[in-house]
Design a protein that fits this description.
13% of the residues lie in helices and 40% in strands. By secondary structure, the protein is mainly beta.
Length: 75
């Protein structure tokens, strides 16, 4: 995996065994990845999804806007 890093990562991912990242069902700013793009990106880095926890919920529309995505290293 070498020096491959997600945006903002402070260290190479080779030493990271688990991660938590907010992923959006509904984009909250321009240019952000969708939830499926984010999970696919982390999968490509050797992580698998372990759980999703709702962070932001739109009660009026009854839908989740963002989740905390918890993943663990598989490779």
């Amino acid at each position: 995996m070498g020096q491959c890093r997600p945006r903002g990562a402070g260290q190479p991912l080779a030493d990271v065994v688990a991660l938590q990242s907010e992923v959006s069902v509904i984009p909250i700013y321009d240019g952000m990845r969708s939830i499926t793009e984010s999970i696919a990106y982390y999968n490509a880095l050797g992580f698998e999804l372990t759980n999703l926890f709702p962070v932001t919920f739109d009660a009026e529309d009854m839908r989740v806007i963002e989740y905390d995505c918890v993943m663990r290293r598989m490779t």
